[in-house]
Write a structure and sequence with these properties.
Elements: H1 2-17, H2 25-34, H3 41-51, H4 56-68, H5 76-86, H6 102-106
Length: 114
C-alpha cells in the first residue's frame, strides 16, 4: 500500500525532472501509462493536494529535515559487541591489521548528510 504512494511520488518527480514545474494529474497518468502501470486515483489526488503550490526543491528540503530527526545510531553497538565476543576465540591466531571503515567515507570528498 505504501509502495503505491511512492510510485505516484516518483512519477511526480520524474515529471519535474522533465521540466514540468507543477505536474498535473494528466502528466502523472502519462508516466504510468508509458510503463503499463495503473494509477490509483485516490492516492494521486491525495499527492497532488499535498504538493499543490509547493516547489519540488522545498518539498525535498522539508523531507530532509524530517529524516535528520530520525535516530539511526543503534546499529553499531551490536556489531561492536559481536566483534568483542569473537576476539578471545581468535587469540591464538596472528592479529590482522584492520583499517577503520570511516576512511572510506572521508575519501568521498563530501558528506551525504550536510
Amino acid at each position: 500500500n505504501h509502495q503505491k504512494g511512492m510510485k505516484h511520488l516518483a512519477a511526480y518527480m520524474l515529471c519535474t525532472l522533465g521540466g514540468k514545474e507543477n505536474p498535473t494529474e494528466a502528466d502523472i497518468k502519462k508516466v504510468f501509462n508509458s510503463i503499463g502501470a495503473q494509477v490509483d486515483a485516490q492516492k494521486l489526488s491525495a499527492l497532488l493536494a499535498q504538493v499543490k503550490g509547493k516547489n519540488i526543491h522545498d518539498i525535498i528540503a522539508e523531507g530532509t529535515k524530517k529524516l535528520a530527526s530520525v535516530p539511526s545510531g543503534g546499529g553499531a553497538a551490536p556489531a561492536a559487541a559481536g566483534g568483542a565476543a569473537a576476539a578471545p576465540a581468535a587469540a591464538g591466531k596472528p592479529a590482522k591489521k584492520e583499517e577503520p571503515a570511516e576512511e572510506e567515507d572521508e575519501d568521498m570528498g563530501f558528506s551525504l548528510f550536510d
